[in-house]
Write a structure and sequence with these properties.
Layout lengths: L1 H20 L2 E10 L18 H15 L4 E10 L5 H9 L4 E5 L2 H10 L6 E4 L16 E3 L4 H14 L4 E7 L2 H17 L2 E8 L11 H12 L8 E5 L19 E3 L4 E3 L10 H12 L5 H20 L4 H9 L26 E4 L4 E5 L27
Parallel strand pairs: 1-2, 1-3, 3-4, 4-5, 6-7, 6-8, 8-9
Antiparallel strand pairs: 10-11, 11-12
Length: 393
């Protein structure tokens, strides 16, 4: 009996050492910019770790499962200044990371993708919402976790149409990103049966609003700016540049709701999301970071979890094997949004519900009831397969 026990212990020790020696290391890079874009509201200023904090939490989640599968995940972060070389940074990360989560503007993302095209590195876009990245400028080595502008606009339009708020006053900013969002809203209106009764442009003339006279100035300016509009149900604002939209609620000439860039806002995630087990996710994030989870945090978390889910399902850390599985019909991932998320195989965009929030609560979740699709109701949000311009090469 004693000999048997000693032998069993010896076997366990040998087996433990063998397992430890066979651990698969899976490196994930994170490529973003230094600094954060300021917002109008002082209580909404993003943290310096916006995005990367979500990826760090996902690494913990991946390693919780990975320890049972002899998989270990690591995260390497690189933050770029405006003058830094994106291609050089991407190559450096790709040297020991088979996957890179990217939170960069569209052109920088494309530069990184083209630089790494022949290396087998998989990029996951966690920040850029430009539709062109999934359409005419799509790349075969980039998975898009962030939703597109068209997905956000469609999600909002479905709810407004469901509410029978079909007459829109569209107010767009003067910057390029504002114009792109306005284009997405026009497309959504035409797609779901809303009518834009009038369009107005809010020119950014610069200047500071946080002055002693700021509130008085805004209170006088916004009613006049929205005066004498044709009859409308809702004012829809396109202001990605954070210039004017937040000043619109309660200040319009006519007593109408505001949506788009202020008021009722479409987003991939919000700190108020508490359905489908999200409370435990929110609490864990708060405990680690002493702040609430943003949409960028959640997009980065989801990107890292895509890798974790695929590596556990394939029992492989090989980027080629993982990428092939991610693009296949058997892949899905849970993300506290009421349904499992999958990839659109024609442009590698992650299908996902979109939350509609008012700054304190989740008002609704799109796709809305009654908007049907022959494959997935989630494909009613954004560019569908028959419309796509993407050719993955």
């Amino acid at each position: 009996m004693f000999r048997w026990l000693v032998g069993a212990i010896g076997f366990c020790v040998v087996a433990t050492h063998a397992l430890a020696a066979d651990v698969t290391e899976i490196g994930i890079g994170y490529l973003g910019h230094t600094g954060v874009k300021p917002k109008i509201s002082l209580v909404e200023q993003p943290a310096d770790n916006d995005g990367i904090a979500g990826a760090r939490l996902a690494i913990e989640d991946n390693n919780t499962t990975g320890k049972f599968l002899n998989q270990h995940f690591t995260l390497e972060e690189v933050r770029l200044k405006e003058s830094d070389d994106v291609a050089k940074a991407a190559l450096a990360l790709a040297g020991h990371n088979g996957f890179i989560i990217v939170d960069l503007p569209a052109d920088a993302l494309l530069k990184a993708a083209d630089t790494l095209r022949d290396r087998g590195t998989v990029l996951l876009n966690a920040g850029a919402i430009d539709d062109r990245l999934r359409e005419q400028d799509c790349r075969a080595n980039v998975i898009h976790v962030a939703p597109t502008r068209s997905m956000l606009a469609d999600a909002l339009a479905q709810y407004l149409v469901w509410k029978q708020w079909k007459r829109w006053l569209l107010v767009a900013g003067s910057h390029d990103t504002d114009k792109l969002y306005a284009d997405a809203l026009r497309r959504a209106a035409a797609r779901f049966g809303a009518k834009i009764v009038q369009e107005r442009t809010f020119e950014d003339t610069g200047g500071a609003r946080r002055t002693d006279s700021g509130v008085t100035l805004i209170q006088r300016q916004m009613p006049v700016f929205t005066q004498a509009a044709p009859a409308y149900d809702v004012l829809v604002a396109a202001d990605e540049s954070e210039v004017f939209a937040s000043y619109l609620p309660y200040r319009t000439w006519d007593p109408r709701p505001v949506a788009g860039s202020a008021g009722l806002v479409p987003t991939s995630w919000d700190a108020s999301q508490d359905q489908w087990g999200a409370v435990q996710m929110q609490n864990r994030f708060m405990k680690l970071n002493s702040r609430r989870m943003t949409a960028t945090d959640m997009q980065a978390w989801t990107a890292a979890r895509l890798i974790g889910e695929a590596t556990s399902r394939t029992n492989s850390g090989d980027p080629k094997v993982v990428f092939s599985f991610l693009k296949g019909p058997d892949f899905s991932v849970a993300a506290f949004k009421g349904t499992r998320l999958t990839l659109r195989d024609w442009n590698l965009q992650l299908r996902q519900p979109i939350l509609l929030v008012d700054g304190r609560m989740v008002v609704s979740v799109s796709p809305q009831e009654g908007f049907l699709h022959q494959v997935s109701e989630l494909d009613t949000l954004g560019v569908d397969r028959p419309e796509t311009k993407c050719k993955l090469l």
